[in-house]
Write a structure and sequence with these properties.
The protein is α/β, with parallel strands linked by helices. The protein has two domains: 9-79, Winged helix-like DNA-binding domain superfamily/Winged helix DNA-binding domain (Arc Repressor Mutant, subunit A, Orthogonal Bundle); 85-197, Rossmann fold. It contains nine helices and nine strands. The protein has helices at residues 9-27, 35-42, 46-54, 68-79, 94-100, 104-107, 138-145, 156-168, 195-209; strands at 32-33, 66-67, 85-90, 110-117, 126-127, 130-134, 147-152, 173-176, 189-192. The strands form two sheets. Strands 5-6-4-3-7-8-9 form a seven-stranded mixed sheet. The protein is elongated. Bound molecules: nicotinamide-adenine-dinucleotide.
Length: 210
């Protein structure tokens, strides 16, 4: 998929919640699910759901909806969750340890193969069965890891210089959990994650509701 053909981010972000509902429908024994049922579960407009699902290439049948099995396959394929991807973690601290311990990532093809840290007390240990290496060994280790993604969970002050090292070592995709807007070459993809934006939503909605 070329960059200018990537669908809108909100549509992509909604697909995992659809998948959750569709999988539930499958385990309830349903063969078809309608866009309206999904929309009702998530308090969305049915037209929105149908538009979002259309990006996966699947079309619903009038009156019946979408065949559940095919829909799951289409969403997983669109998201790339049906193929394995090796990832490295940079920063084996609180957040990094939690991420490597989250088993659901494996179900989405994400496989942490190594962690890197600059704390000598952490290197040589394991977090959730993932070996922790010295960040100084990044380049030689990377050669054998076949990793396409780096997950960045270091202090913000370190983020840019570490990113420069990752790019130099050949990493093309960075999942950035720091609050730094990283500068990278055009051929490197960065996705920044911020839990505080979800918390901000919660606070504002809570403030309006009570
Ligand atoms: P932490 O201090 O527990 O972990 C940071 C780890 O990075 C440590 O193990 C440390 O040894 C390692 N490190 C420091 N400098 C390094 C370097 N130069 N090279 C390699 N490793 C290095 O911190 P934490 O609580 O896990 O937070 C990590 C980052 O994630 C911070 O930037 C924090 O702001 C961010 N964070 C983001 C979210 C979010 O929603 N995106 C949530 C929590 C934390």
């Amino acid at each position: 998929m070329t960059k200018n053909k990537i669908p809108a981010a909100p549509s992509i972000r909604r697909l995992p919640s659809y998948l959750h509902i569709i999988r539930q429908a499958q385990s309830d024994g349903l063969e078809y699910i309608s866009g309206t049922v999904i929309a009702n579960e998530l308090v969305l407009e049915p037209i929105q759901v149908r538009k979002d699902l259309a990006i996966t290439g699947i079309i619903g049948k009038p009156k019946r909806g979408y065949p559940v099995g095919e829909l799951i396959t289409a969403i997983e394929h669109f998201l790339g969750w049906d193929s394995a991807k090796n990832a490295i973690l940079i920063g084996a601290g609180n957040l990094g340890t939690a991420l490597t311990g989250y088993q659901e990532f494996k179900n989405h093809g994400l496989n942490f193969v190594a962690a890197f840290d600059n704390n000598p007390q952490k290197t040589g240990t394991q977090i959730h069965d993932v070996p922790v290496y010295s960040f100084a060994d990044l380049k030689p280790k990377l050669k054998n890891l076949n990793a396409s993604i780096a997950v960045l969970t270091v202090p913000s002050t370190e983020a840019q210089s570490i990113t420069d090292n990752l790019v130099e070592a050949g990493i093309k995709a960075i999942w950035n959990f720091t609050n730094v807007k990283l500068k990278v070459p055009e051929d490197v993809v960065v996705q920044r994650e911020d839990l505080t934006s979800g918390y901000a939503m919660l606070c504002v909605v809570m403030g309006k509701a009570y």
